[in-house]
Structure formats: structure tokens, C-alpha cells
């Protein structure tokens, strides 16, 4: 098993090195994740567009082109690895306090490095962020979780309720004259 703190260190180093190059390419670096699951070490680079538009495949390809050579030249990552540049998606990962603060009132899943109140896995609504502590409400009870204690966190996508607008536009039928 890989050392989780080493993985976090690799991701942090990658973020620091890549952020300016991602910005030069015209995007924002949300975060990096390093995983060695399945014997294939992978660096995930999550990007956003500054205009708020959804990230598409051409955006991912542009950022990949901007950073791939840098990673090899700087030798930031140990050994062979896969590079995946992606949008954060609907179940976007959350890492920093500003990530959680931007999604107050939304459902999240959090996994901690060690148990807090006898549990490591949490699913609840983000209700507050105070410095480096996230408060989530689970079954009506508030729980404070320090950011350094969080191994992984992401939003939970929920289907729109019946009758709730799903997005898109409705075309009006044209009457014949």
C-alpha cells in the first residue's frame, strides 16, 4: 500500500509546479490528485475555465499539451505514470477551504485519514467553513472536520426533484398563420 502522506505530497508539489503553466494556457487549476491504485500511478489534474463554461475535451487536450513536457523535464513524479487532465465533473473534488465554502448547502462525501467520532466516512450537507475546519450536518447533527484530517472529499450529485427545472430551453410551438 502506498503512503497516503507521500501521495498528498506528490499532488501538492504537482499543483505548485503546474498552476502557473495551467494559467498561462488560459485555465485555472482546481487541484491535483496522485493515486497508485491498480499498479498504474496516475496524476489527475482538474481544471476549470475562468469564464465558468463547462470544460470540454479540447480544453483538457490544451492543458495536457501545456504541462506534459514540464512534468517530464522537472521530474516531479516518481517513475512512469499516467496523466489525466479532467473537468471536476458534477461530483467535483473538494480539498481547500474555498472549495467547501463555494458549495455551502450542498451534499458531500468526506473520508478522513483517521476516525473522528468513531467514523471515517461521512455524507452530509456542508453548513459552514471556519478557517481550516469544515462543518457538515449528518442526520441533523453538526460535525466539525479539520481539513488536514480529510483524505478525500467530493460533492454528491443528486437528481433534480420531480417538477424541478432540469436546465436547457423549451421551444415554443409556432402557430400557423
Descriptors:
single chain; 177 residues; GMP Synthetase, Chain A, domain 3; SH3 type barrels; five-stranded antiparallel sheet; 25% helix; globular; disordered N terminus
Describe what you observe in this structure:
It is globular and about 50 Å long. It is built from three helices and eight strands; from the N terminus they run αββαβαβββββ. The protein has two domains: 4-86, GMP Synthetase, Chain A, domain 3, CATH 3.30.300; 97-155, Ribosome maturation factor RimP, C-terminal domain (SH3 type barrels), CATH 2.30.30.180. It is an alpha+beta fold. The chain has helices at 4-24, 57-74, 97-101; strands at 28-35, 42-48, 82-86, 107-116, 119-130, 133-138, 141-146, 150-155.
- Topology, number of strands: 8
Task: Please list the strands of the largest sheet in the order they lie side by side.
Answer: 7-6-5-4-8
CATH topology of the largest domain: GMP Synthetase, Chain A, domain 3
CATH class of the largest domain: Alpha Beta
* Level-2 CATH architecture of the largest domain: 2-Layer Sandwich
Largest sheet: 5 strands, antiparallel
What is the overall silhouette? globular
In whole angstroms, how far apart are the ends?
72 Å
Cα-atom Rg, whole angstroms? 19 Å
In terms of per-residue confidence, which ranges show pLDDT below 50 for 5 or more consecutive residues?
Answer: 1-5, 168-174
Label the structural class.
Answer: alpha+beta
Strand content: 25-35%
Number of helices: 3
